[in-house]
Amino acid sequence: MSDNTNHLRLKLPAICFLLQLFTIILFAVFVRYDHETSARLWHQELRQHNKSKLENDFYFRYPSFQDVHTMIFIGFGFLMTFLKRYGFGSVAFNFLIAAFAIQWSTLIQGFFHSFHNGKIYIGIESMINADFCSGAVLISFGAVLGKTSPVQLLLMALFEVTFFGINEYILLSVLGAKDAGGSMTIHTFGAYFGLMVSRVLYRPQLDKSREKEGSVYHSDLFAMIGTIYLWLFWPSFNSAITAHGDDQQRTVMNTYFSLAACTLATFAMSALVNGEGKLDMVHIQNAALAGGVVVGTSGEMMLTPFGAMIAGFLAGLISTLGFKFLTPILDSRLKIQDTCGVHNLHGMPGILGALLGALVAALATQDVYGDGMTDVFPLIADGSRTATSQGVFQFFALLITLGFAVVGGSLVGAVLKIRILGSPLDTQCFEDQIYWEVPADHPDGYGHMMAVNSEDQERSASI
Amino acid sequence: MSDNTNHLRLKLPAICFLLQLFTIILFAVFVRYDHETSARLWHQELRQHNKSKLENDFYFRYPSFQDVHTMIFIGFGFLMTFLKRYGFGSVAFNFLIAAFAIQWSTLIQGFFHSFHNGKIYIGIESMINADFCSGAVLISFGAVLGKTSPVQLLLMALFEVTFFGINEYILLSVLGAKDAGGSMTIHTFGAYFGLMVSRVLYRPQLDKSREKEGSVYHSDLFAMIGTIYLWLFWPSFNSAITAHGDDQQRTVMNTYFSLAACTLATFAMSALVNGEGKLDMVHIQNAALAGGVVVGTSGEMMLTPFGAMIAGFLAGLISTLGFKFLTPILDSRLKIQDTCGVHNLHGMPGILGALLGALVAALATQDVYGDGMTDVFPLIADGSRTATSQGVFQFFALLITLGFAVVGGSLVGAVLKIRILGSPLDTQCFEDQIYWEVPADHPDGYGHMMAVNSEDQERSASI
Amino acid sequence: MSDNTNHLRLKLPAICFLLQLFTIILFAVFVRYDHETSARLWHQELRQHNKSKLENDFYFRYPSFQDVHTMIFIGFGFLMTFLKRYGFGSVAFNFLIAAFAIQWSTLIQGFFHSFHNGKIYIGIESMINADFCSGAVLISFGAVLGKTSPVQLLLMALFEVTFFGINEYILLSVLGAKDAGGSMTIHTFGAYFGLMVSRVLYRPQLDKSREKEGSVYHSDLFAMIGTIYLWLFWPSFNSAITAHGDDQQRTVMNTYFSLAACTLATFAMSALVNGEGKLDMVHIQNAALAGGVVVGTSGEMMLTPFGAMIAGFLAGLISTLGFKFLTPILDSRLKIQDTCGVHNLHGMPGILGALLGALVAALATQDVYGDGMTDVFPLIADGSRTATSQGVFQFFALLITLGFAVVGGSLVGAVLKIRILGSPLDTQCFEDQIYWEVPADHPDGYGHMMAVNSEDQERSASI
């Protein structure tokens, strides 16, 4: 038994209890039901404005929320189960850190966006935003998957949510940038934050765990559950907080076509770049999703269906090429070990999506948007900004996001290096047995390997 | 070939045909489309009340219904696939008995709640309630999982639905208790009913099947599909039939935060109670869900977000401790063999939820609820009851539920002991091969074990 | 390495790029946002008709759309993963061809149904219809599963979508037939189209791959994910494009009860037809779904709940019997190799559903439908047709569908025989290794078999 795991017995409970109790206290002090969630406030509003109960925003946001919720817990969770010996950790640590992040981000985002008279008022929209923020943390988790302890991951979530909140506040509230589906705030931020953490935590000896970094046949099928759910519900993700009416429907449609075109591009490139013309599950599981990322900013705009398709198509190409050619270089040259290839799925498509958003914003005309301009670009509609300057602000938003991600990720990476946090040894990466009771003495499946590995563990622990 | 299985050839078809045909006849005689489902009635209502088609309650309940439906068939079904050799039985018997229970409970609940002029009128709300009732049956199924034949299970569903209907009627209609998410009617009832059935069917020789009671690596991942879906959609479960508007949104939010806090408590306790500091998949798969159970009664009340968190946190602690310390005692001392640990996931958290509901009801004030009091506590709002007496009635509701569960479960357990129902031998528990054509002569996966077991079967059959 | 796979390196990218670019160009020329999706048009409508943003049809169709979307990509995709060595191909080729089909059918259906002033206007309803059309293609895919290259499948989708569009136009717009859930347009058409393709592509030497046509324990569990999702969301499928209000709610309810009764019938028949009284996963995975198919036409009509149950019950019986007795005959006598048994799940229940629809239509009376007649049978309501003649038209619609399916399938089958399309050898069917990088040198799972098979491949390639 390694020292690491013995320490986990106290460290993990300690950080879980601490974070949860601290969160409960802050909720008790600051968080209240908003005007649609409180019995008194909502019924007051009903009476004063002669409203119908059916106008509660619950009915117009909750189905989207549930799709996003599915993406966060099933989508991200199962996407990462492709690792043959890290399925428990993938789906369950995803579960743990998302469960914490949605609470913590309710506080952080609440302070920035719905803090009135010393209280944070929350409702269905804050729940969607909390899930979004936890999405960014899970993207970063993808970069460090299998190489970090749950204690490290919870600390990463604590800090990353905070940086996320500040960056999002600057983008949306200070710069007036639009980013409903989070090409910048979620994908670009989450990816480069995670890559920087991974850079700081670089493991020169990771080759000792490489044989465990692959998949088995059925772990690839589990991962496809994650992939397909992310793909399916991405239209809900991008549209979940856009303005009611045409905006939501248009965002859904753009995302739908972008993803469809991206899928064909991914299959094509996957066969093309493989020497034998075979398809690679890694590409299908990941690059086919880049079409959702790339229209995260522009999805609510008048992108046109064929514009969405072109965007998705390019994202699929770039992402697949990234998996084939860039990931190995990041590892060998830049010392960035990116377990899930988040740079290819979220990083590059996120940047492309931000640039596309800036372009489409700069091209906005009254003729195309009509009265709908108010919902999509309120600052253009009220005359305080031209379309071109909106485009420029969008571009600056990307730069600021990259800055926050790189600086934040580096700082947090440094914090996570603290020895006491129980990071696994280089020989123990991508291995559930470090943190989990694993069915072991079973003649099927993983039985034999586990036994072998158990010896490895002893050895590495005694080093 | 054992005698049991040969008999199944006629018994299972016989009971399926009998129950289904009987149900069809009762539906033909009694069941009619309600005012929102019938073409004539709804269009009459549209004309008379100058309504819009979009006010049909379908649009305000159906998304919740589909989430609940997913929990019943995917959630419960896959949660139980953790057993390495009972995956087919887990997901498919769950499917079978739920498919029967939703039909039967439409009748039973219809007689109690929507019987007018000799007819039962049904619509989207009756579908949700039918799914709820089948949830209770599936909880009981969890207690006896792997130790009962499908014939026994269908009979259990037949009787349990009936007891459920009576208990629910007494609680909601006679006592005026509130229990929208079913801490009492569904979880407490289903758990203790199943535990009593399991007690009556106690198998002193079950150790002969113990080696099959565990999981393999991938069966634990299949189970996580069930867990995560239950966790995700629990907010929809608790809110599916609460009043429109703030009530639904508040219930969703309370459940969301309760579950999040419960998850952290579960991970913490799981690491703490394990000697080596490792996490146990059984805890994560089950105890992390106790946060949904515990706010089943109080979720629609003004519990406050931090109140929900405290409830969920405690539920996670209790549930994990139950799995570690109580389940073995139930088995050895009380002769209750609880395959899925429903006592920890549904039993104790259900009781805690009922008590919490009584407490929060007793604390209700006009100041906090405003005009919304009518929706949450109509009997307090119209002055026919004080908050304190509502709390007392809630408490009595718990006692009555426990009574019905214990008496009902004992009686039904006695019925299920009838020899002809084809209960598996003690050596054949947790084994799909008794009831299923299983891929057998395959070099991968389960091939070898199955062959070995086949001999076991012959032997036990000839005893 | 076989010649086939080497060629795939260029062929698959070529056809993907070609189809996608061609589609993008057609979208650029023809496809525009409709009046609810365009910022300008919707806000114009809001102003002119004094509407609320919340009346956008997005809110009343999107949850149904997402359920249908889940059925197409998760439901169909995972249902087909039952094959032990074709899991990647099942879920991923399903993904590929559906991603293409939804784009292509948006164009084809758009030309027939929403072509105004030289443009196709699209919104949420066209997205549902596109998913429906891709459902038909995926049904045909089920018939040829494991025996066709992805290049062949994309070509099949290209042509089948076109035939589908013509047939659907004739049924709905020319004949005025009703078929909201697609018993005819989707299930009957997709099944017989696929069976004819399979007939033309008959492989007399398929026995060489038979050992690979089975399942392993966990592949059957993956398939159950598909089954349960299809079962769960079928009510949404049948109701997704019916009229608002009672129609949608009634369709949901009819489908719900039909499926429940079908499930009991399936379990009963499965045990009955098996010599040892054991249940067969193939039946549960497939026949239990026939209850959704059989009410595809009549679901929106005043079928009554018990009528729906009878229909589902019969569908379950017929479908299970078909798997047991008809599929082997189709293969041996009619030379139709039906991998997934689509004849039993979609073919026969589809025809039964069409006949049931004709019957229920012929029995429609003003007394039963009231003012709701306008929504269900507009041509009866406005006096241009009697109920009987509506029934007759429904029946002709079935005949025309069968005609289009048989002729279309035969023609497309002939096209797919072109040698260059890279059809797998008879020894290589049901085998992922032909098209995929498969985790191979791994001691677990499929490692050993794959190695053996690799030699097979060499040999067959050199023949």
UniProtKB/TrEMBL annotation, chains A, B, C:
It is a multi-pass membrane protein. One of its GO terms (biological process) is ammonium homeostasis. The chain crosses the membrane at residues 12-33, 64-83, 95-115, 127-146, 153-172, 184-202, 214-234, 254-274, 281-299, 305-326, 347-365, 392-416. InterPro entries: Ammonium/urea_transptr, NH4_transpt_AmtB-like_dom, RhesusRHD. The keyword Cell membrane applies. GO terms for molecular function: ammonium channel activity. Residues 53-420 form the Ammonium transporter AmtB-like domain. Its main location: membrane. It is found in: Cell membrane. One of its GO terms (cellular component) is plasma membrane. The keyword Transport applies. PANTHER family: AMMONIUM TRANSPORTER, AMMONIUM TRANSPORTER RH TYPE B. Belongs to the ammonium transporter (TC 2.A.49) family. Rh subfamily. This is Rh family B glycoprotein (gene/pseudogene).
